[in-house]
Specification:
heterodimer; A: 499 residues; alpha/beta; five-stranded parallel β-sheet; 20 helices; B: Mannitol-specific EII, Chain A; 42% helix
């Protein structure tokens, strides 16, 4: 039998290696072929694709999380504490043999496909890794912002970003949080509610860096982190949104992998991982984000803004639909910002209906995804279902970012679905002639909405459209998707023995 | 890099009522040898690690260990106890105690030597040889041969 095993322990200096030795010894004595990845302080030699493809079973002897678990999705798995592998390697191997047998012949389709696993599957696994690390930031950031509204009311935004409130003039003190924020002034002007709001914004600033960093990490391990995170931060700074983060993460991971293929002289090999690779890849990804991605974004958003301004006064329902499409396209990214800014500008010009359509269309996506995870939980990973739980509140608070985890994990199915529902909501809100005097706050400012019942009806219909579309698209695409093991329910045919 | 172990870090008659004092006796030797800069701080790190999961292993082995800021270099302290000291293993007290001290920021080259040592610990012949060693010098030579190949 061919075995791959991962050992790891809290300190990473003793048990990890004892377990590895113990398993190797027992396996060799029993005539098995084994490769052990020791995820300890001395660094791990990762499995080659060939070793993974040839393996019959994976053993995890670990007291801390196994890194890169998704690599073993195609294998039956046996998990145990690290001590078990030291004290009873033979028993553990017997269990592994049993697990391999019970599962019968290797899952030919997937297992043999490892070296040439479908690019779509690989891509989805990378994206999912990034998303699973990003989700807590979405939830925490969104809830902090909602708490800011709850304690500070809708005024909190004016006090942070400047404007006039009850005849009092407020200076903008928040900058583009965390960039240029004056925290003393935030506390003075907006109090602790403002501070909660600001913390939420800081967490949101980290969405692209975390997403990007961990996509790159999934692709290229630790070496991917620096270019991935720096690239993601730049995506946030240039306003490229989460899609910018996806781009920088994938580019960073691919670049590190490509550099890894270059043969270097022995003397250089030592400095490659700590100096050369991070340096070169960070420069390259930095240039990519600033020059190739950042500059055009400015042009595109400028031209979209003037395009929208040209539409003023045309068919209101069509304008609502268009704004809806834009709000749901990148959820806090540049296109969304253009639509939102247009809504706020219309509001100051006295067009309260445009603001209402924009806000309603921005509330739809997270609620629709939350609904979809409840109606068809099987279509979503554990991490996504958790993100769904927060989606209700985030959507109701007009925090469109709540849908980002879903969009980043499966953009081609999720983004069009969300755009469809938001377009319907935006169009209906305009058709119903609903109005909003508040530019933010979602359900918390429903008192400032004209025709609130029809307004909510518009949101509900859009939610139903998006949820139904996303469920339909995901159901249709399900057969060809293999989910990573750490984020997904293990396929029914893979027995997992937990000891 | 200095030696992983010297005769000063070996106690062939380590007797202590419990794992904390047994470990402390060995740690004192490391402190005297300049490998541990702050005994109390080091003991706190050891205790924190022990808290996560007892380090006793079946077959009479205890491996108190930690990565600590108070450690200058990867170092091994070895104690042998005829009465045994409880390290939380299910099958009884430990007779061979390995105190593994690793510096907190040690790079992977530093850690490789400890990884090699850990791998040796699962070999019965290595443990038997340590049980039979008659002088601290025997222990040091044995470990140097087996772990460092010297």
């Amino acid at each position: 039998m061919k075995i791959v095993a991962v050992t790891s322990c809290p300190t990473g200096i003793a048990h990890t290696y004892m377990a590895a030795e113990s398993l190797e010894k027992a396996a060799t004595e029993a005539g098995h072929e084994i490769h052990v990845e020791t995820q300890g302080a001395a660094g791990a030699e990762p499995f080659t694709p060939q070793q993974l493809a040839d393996a019959d079973v994976a053993i995890f002897a670990a007291d801390v999380e196994v890194r890169g678990r998704e690599r073993f999705a195609h294998l039956p798995q046996v998990s145990a504490g690290v001590k078990r592998a030291i004290n009873d390697p033979t028993g553990l191997l017997a269990e592994a043999t049993e697990a391999a047998k019970t599962r019968g012949a290797k899952q030919q389709v997937v297992a043999s496909a490892i070296p040439r696993v479908g690019p779509g599957t690989r891509l989805r696994q990378w994206l999912m890794t990034g998303v699973s690390y990003m989700i807590p930031f979405v939830a925490a950031g969104g809830i902090l912002i909602a708490l800011g509204f709850l304690f500070g009311g809708d005024d909190v935004v004016t006090k942070l970003y400047g404007g006039t409130l009850h005849g009092v003039e407020y200076k903008s003190v928040a900058g583009n949080l965390p960039l240029g924020a004056d925290f003393d002034a935030i506390i003075r002007q907006a109090g602790y509610a403002g501070l909660l709001f600001a913390f939420g914004k800081v967490a949101f600033f980290m969405l692209a860096p975390i997403l990007s960093g961990f996509i790159a990490f999934a692709m290229a391990d630790r070496q991917g982190l620096v270019p991935g995170i720096v690239g993601g931060l730049l995506a946030s700074v240039v306003g490229a949104g989460f899609l910018g983060g996806v781009v920088s993460g994938l580019a960073a991971g691919a670049l590190v992998l490509a550099i890894g293929k270059v043969k270097v002289p022995r003397g250089m090999a030592g400095v490659m991982p700590v100096v050369i690779v991070p340096l070169l890849t960070t420069i390259a990804i930095g240039l990519l984000m600033v020059v190739v991605v950042g500059k055009p974004i400015k042009h595109v958003t400028d031209s979209m803004t003037s395009g929208l301004n040209g539409l003023t006064g045309t068919n209101a329902v069509l304008l609502g639909a268009l704004l809806g499409l834009m709000m749901a396209f990148d959820m806090g990214g540049p296109v969304n910002k253009v639509a939102y800014t247009f809504g706020v500008a219309s509001l100051s010009a006295g067009n309260l209906d445009v603001m209402a359509a924009v806000m309603a269309a921005g509330m739809t996506p997270p609620i629709a995804m939350a609904l979809a995870t409840v109606v068809r939980p099987k279509l979503f990973t554990d991490a996504e279902r958790k993100a769904g739980e927060a989606g209700w509140l985030l959507g109701a608070s007009f925090i469109t970012e709540g849908a980002i985890p879903f969009a980043a994990a499966d953009p081609l199915r999720v983004i069009p679905s969300l755009m469809a529902g938001s377009a319907v909501t935006g169009a209906l809100s305009m058709a119903f002639k609903a109005t909003s005097r508040a530019p933010h706050g979602g359900i918390f400012v429903v008192g400032l909405v004209g025709k609130p019942v029809l307004y909510i009806l518009a949101i509900v219909i859009g939610v139903l459209v998006s949820a139904a579309t996303v469920v339909a698209l995901k159901t249709a695409g399900r057969r060809v998707i293999t989910l990573p093991a750490d984020a997904a329910p293990v396929p029914a045919s893979t027995p997992v023995a937990t000891v | 890099m200095s030696d992983l172990i010297t005769v000063d870090f070996v106690d062939l008659e380590l007797e202590a009522p419990d794992r904390a004092s047994g470990t402390r006796d060995l740690a004192q030797r490391l402190a005297k040898g300049g490998r541990v800069t702050d005994l109390d701080g080091f003991m706190a790190d050891i205790a924190a690690r022990e808290q996560q999961m007892a380090t006793g292993l079946e077959g009479g082995i205890g491996i108190p260990h930690c990565r600590s800021e108070h450690v200058t270099e990867p170092t091994l302290g070895f104690g042998r106890s005829s009465t045994g000291i409880d390290f939380g293993a299910p099958d009884g007290p430990a007779h061979l105690i390995f105190l593994i001290a690793a510096p907190a920021g040690g790079g992977s080259e530093h850690m490789t030597i400890l990884a090699k040592l850990a791998r040796k610990l699962v070999h019965q012949s290595f443990k038997d040889a340590l049980r039979d060693a008659s002088t601290p010098q025997d222990v040091v030579s044995l470990i140097n041969t087996e772990v460092l190949g010297q």
